[in-house]
Specification:
alpha+beta; 16% helix; 230 residues
């Protein structure tokens, strides 16, 4: 699938993404993960925590962490704190057919302040992924992009970067990052770490769609470009 086809694919998917009556689809803290190989979809229980994403005094990377495993080091900075470990999530994505890009090295981050390094300008590769979020009160899941304000206007185009080998290096628990980050399992191809360091990619919360206060949510991940998803 060509990169420019993403908006059309996502628009076509909006009507198809839904939750059964009752919304939670059997998800709870004891059973926080559901894998549907036929639909190439994963559903994860998470805490929606707007204050964690917007609070700045302890957040060294504001506007970066979208979904993080609750046990990871970056969980207190994320909009969504997932009840599923990042390693488990990675393997679940592979089980539905996602191909990891694995093209981001640690230098993508460690050399972020080195203007002569090309690594921080690397865009994440891997299978395209669509992400939606639902909580009680919503008629249907919202696309992840609707939860944020995008300062650069480039959008959110997600790829399954994988980066499993870097999990013990980062120990952040990152599942979805809003830039092409080597610590993420899924990252945003629209923005690089260089963009983030240069102040061109710091997302803010869309308070028109995200309610105040902490609450349970379901995060839906669907593999794009194959089968029914296309």
């Amino acid at each position: 699938m060509m990169f420019h086809a993403f908006p059309l694919v996502l628009a076509a998917l909006l009507a198809a993404v839904s939750l059964p009556r009752g919304g939670w689809d059997g998800l709870d803290e004891a059973h926080p993960l559901k894998v549907d190989k036929a639909e190439k979809e994963i559903r994860v229980l998470a805490d929606l925590q707007p204050r964690a994403f917007t609070r700045r005094w302890f957040n060294s990377m504001p506007g970066h962490h979208a979904v993080v495993w609750k046990g990871g080091g970056a969980a207190r900075k994320a909009l969504l704190a997932a009840y599923v470990e990042d390693t488990t999530f990675h393997d679940a994505m592979v089980s539905i057919g996602a191909k990891p890009g694995n093209n981001l090295t640690q230098k993508t981050w460690s050399e972020r302040f080195n203007k002569t390094s090309r690594a921080p300008s690397t865009k994440i590769e891997g299978s395209p992924v669509g992400v939606w979020v639902w909580w009680d009160g919503l008629e249907k899941p919202l696309p992840l992009k609707d939860l944020f304000k995008d300062p650069g206007g480039k959008g959110i185009h997600l790829r399954f970067g994988g980066n499993k080998a870097l999990i013990p290096v980062w120990r952040s628990g990152c599942v979805v990052c809003l830039q092409s980050c080597p610590g993420s399992k899924i990252g945003n191809r629209s923005y690089t770490i260089r963009d983030y360091v240069d102040g061109k990619a710091t997302f803010t919360l869309n308070e028109k769609t995200v309610p105040p206060g902490k609450r349970k949510a379901v995060v839906l991940f669907r593999l794009l470009g194959t089968g029914k998803a296309e």
